[in-house]
Write a structure and sequence with these properties.
It contains 8 helices and 11 strands. The protein is an alpha+beta fold. The chain binds iron/sulfur cluster (SF4) (3 copies). The site of one iron/sulfur cluster has 14 residues, from α3.
Length: 252
Amino acid sequence: MTTLPQTTEKKLGLVIDLDICVGCQACVTSCKEWNTSGYSAPLSDQDPYGSDPHGAWLNRVHGYEIGDGETSLTLHFPRSCLHCEAPDCVTVCPTGASYKRAEDGIVLVDPDTCIGCKLCSWACPYGAREYDYAQGVMKKCTLCVDRIYNENLDEEDRVPACVRACPTGARAFGDLGDPDSAVSKSVNDRGGFDLLADFGYKPVNKYLPPRPRRDSNNGANTPFLESTAPGANGAQSATDRFFAWADRMLAR
Ligand code: SF4
Ligand code: SF4
Ligand code: SF4
């Protein structure tokens, strides 16, 4: 059992805009490249060009087609650790290898004390933890802690590798604990939402919903957007149901 800090000085995280993500995978490959050659030990690949490829990826982007015909919507869904405020992946850890930093809220794994028991990956409802079979330890998004404070990098590079690489600006980094930060304002302006909020993990990362289609008829053909509001009587919204379905499909 590992304890969490009572509060954190900052809530650093990502805001991901589902409206403008085009599913190009640039963030995925940039994340892999940075974290494979960075300080936190290589990310393995097993049988990468064979019949049963497998490997550790700290960021994955999944594509979905929602609906049919004129009302259909293609949605690209980037998925990485959400650096939750109340994450069971930390509290279940028997060795203290998983921890949440009090200074900025980043959730990390210490590879030197991780015993590879995988309890944390069972606890994470977002499927955000990646077991590294080559090294026998758990890995996850570090929010590029080795970039954002790195004074050896040019100032414009002191952001996560995925944010730096995104050609559409679909990923933004900042302090979601500061209501005046650009990321907090975008969440406020666009109705940003928590993924699977009912679990109570209080994810720091937020998602911005797709905007109405330009050819829509008073929004009549934007089924995904229409369903982002909470259902009546607290019923699970269609957005939540979609992500719950995605989580069931993707969880390992
Ligand atoms: S796999 Fe490692 S980080 Fe995860 S719960 Fe076990 S010891 Fe902790
Ligand atoms: S913040 Fe860094 S480690 Fe996390 S998904 Fe982005 S590139 Fe990968
Ligand atoms: S780089 Fe940006 S646009 Fe491309 S998949 Fe990642 S978030 Fe989406």
